[in-house]
């Protein structure tokens, strides 16, 4: 039976560091603050917002909401982004995406102050991930995968890591972060021939394709660590990952659960990034 | 015997396109112009500058040189970069690196106008490569590898591509560009365990490690296409690549020679980028 890599344990460890940083900031009179820009009322966004707000509250991080109707204009959105950029009491910004199709998402991301970009959506943050420099912040989800590996002492050096998925939110940044940790990294995707054969070679397997239980027993072998990024509603109406958890639990060495794995750590990383953004801005100004 | 993927053929095809673009620009009264910023007199830089200038001349692209002594100050360098940024007659800039250690290279790269960055050194260009967006330009060497694959009709889709090397000049950008072409991409490096076993899996093998003939017969198998990015002086005093050419020629399907392979195409890509930068700036202003 595989070891279950629980998000709660990772969160407890991250939480200690966050609390210490928040205390130090508060001694300087600074309340680290997350700005949330939400256009419309998509249930996914509302659910994530609720979780993020609760996690912020837990660690003493304030939340300011900037809400726009689903039919807002590009001008209204850009005006809101400028307002958030200018407001020095807001240290980190979460802007829900995808934006409604009537809006220019690339222009919106481009307008955000890179210093406040805590989720890897600006040019600066993306270049930072690619070059391993401290510019902006990597996407929280990719960072959450690394936090789990680090917390559970999974040494990546010289190991074979396979990332299934090549999105800018998880696949590509996770690949760069694994390279940074000296893994030999392979990126698979929808055009890959024989994913199972490649996945079985992995010592560390990161699954981020967005289809329920798409990665099953044929992709696993003994000795692997599996990080499951997916959050889907399965046929039985229950939450499930992109990996078949029952198969993984039976075959591999260690696997993250869904729910309670990557997703739960992602929310904590978001708070951590807000606090780090506040620290950087305080040191700078 | 492997097919030899000669740079001259690729250059001839690229050259046709470049000439057509240059003609169109000249009809609008624009002479595409490369600005070269060189600090000191390193033999490598002088040799590359000579080749690049000759290639520019061949295609009707002008060259302006901005030369600074090896002991120049950061202020002098930044002033020169600002001058080049402001000069609207200069469309693309090549700044030789590494800069002398007394200078802040990151600050210098950061100061360059991304629109004129034809060799992938600014944040904008690097994010462009990572996200597959048309921001700035990718590094010429990585682009040259792709031009060779494209010219010789090597279809990357679903193929296994292995990149040996993870630099920002070749390895990482080439990996992103191969992903874009729908290859399944593995990046190896100095910490990789058993490079030969991984390299033999590759359908397309890009070698960029900077050591003469470091990749030999144990890394090759029938059916491969090998792109050799290295340019080294071998024990016999002759130029050689990072791959053992004799081994490759005997075993694989196709291989680039050194000299006359990637390096020669890189210079043409540089000219191509200057011309494309001129086109973009003309459309914009």
List the helices and strands and how they pair.
Two copies of one chain form a homodimer.
Chain A (H helix, E strand, L loop, with lengths): L2 E2 L2 H21 L5 E7 L3 H16 L3 E7 L5 H13 L5 E4 L9 H7 L11 H9 L8 H12 L8 E5 L6 H10 L3 E5 L6 H7 L2 E4 L17 E4 L3 E2 L5 E2 L4 H7 L2 E2 L6 H23 L1
Parallel strand pairs in A: 1-11, 2-3, 2-4, 5-6, 5-7, 7-8, 8-11
Antiparallel strand pairs in A: 9-10
Helix pairs in contact in A: 1-10, 2-10, 6-7, 6-10
Commentary on this structure:
The structure is a homodimer of 285-residue chains. Chain A has helices at 7-27, 43-58, 74-86, 105-111, 123-131, 140-151, 171-180, 195-201, 245-251, 262-284, and strands at residues 3-4, 33-39, 62-68, 92-95, 160-164, 184-188, 204-207, 225-228, 232-233, 239-240, 254-255. Chain A is α/β, with parallel strands linked by helices and 285 residues long. Chain A folds into two domains: 29-112, Leucine Dehydrogenase, chain A, domain 1 (Rossmann fold, 3-Layer(aba) Sandwich), CATH 3.40.50; 140-263, NAD(P)-binding Rossmann-like Domain (Rossmann fold, 3-Layer(aba) Sandwich). In chain A, the strands form three sheets. A six-stranded parallel β-sheet of chain A has the order 1-11-8-7-5-6, sandwiched between helices. Chain A is globular, with a radius of gyration of 19 Å. The N and C termini of chain A lie far apart (52 Å). Strand 6 (184-188) of chain A pairs antiparallel with strand 6 (184-188) of chain B, so a sheet runs across the interface.
């Amino acid at each position: 039976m595989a070891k279950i890599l629980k998000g709660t344990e990772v969160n407890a460890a991250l939480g200690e560091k966050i609390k210490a940083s928040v205390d130090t900031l508060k001694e300087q009179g600074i309340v680290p603050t997350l700005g949330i820009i939400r256009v419309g009322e998509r249930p996914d966004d509302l659910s994530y917002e609720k979780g993020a707000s609760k996690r912020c509250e837990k660690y003493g991080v304030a939340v300011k909401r900037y809400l726009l109707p689903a039919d807002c204009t590009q001008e209204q959105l850009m005006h809101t982004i400028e307002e958030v950029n200018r407001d020095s009491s807001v240290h980190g910004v979460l802007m829900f995406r995808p934006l409604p199709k009537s809006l220019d998402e690339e222009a919106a991301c481009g307008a955000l102050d890179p210093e406040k970009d805590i989720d890897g959506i600006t040019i600066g943050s993306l270049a930072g991930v690619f070059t391993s420099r401290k510019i902006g912040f990597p996407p929280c989800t990719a960072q959450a995968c690394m936090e789990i590996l680090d917390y559970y002492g999974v040494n990546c050096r010289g190991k074979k890591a396979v990332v299934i998925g090549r999105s800018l939110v998880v696949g590509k940044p996770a690949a760069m972060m694994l390279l940074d940790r000296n893994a030999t990294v392979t990126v698979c995707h929808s055009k890959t021939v024989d994913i199972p054969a490649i996945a079985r070679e992995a010592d560390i397997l990161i699954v981020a394709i967005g289809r329920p239980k798409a990665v099953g027993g044929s992709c696993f072998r003994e000795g692997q660590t599996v990080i499951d990024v997916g959050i889907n509603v399965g046929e039985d109406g229950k939450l499930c990952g992109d990996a078949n958890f029952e198969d993984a639990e039976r075959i591999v060495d260690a696997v993250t659960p869904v729910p309670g794995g990557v997703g739960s750590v992602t929310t904590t990383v978001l708070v951590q990034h807000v606090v780090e953004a506040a620290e950087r801005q305080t040191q700078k100004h």
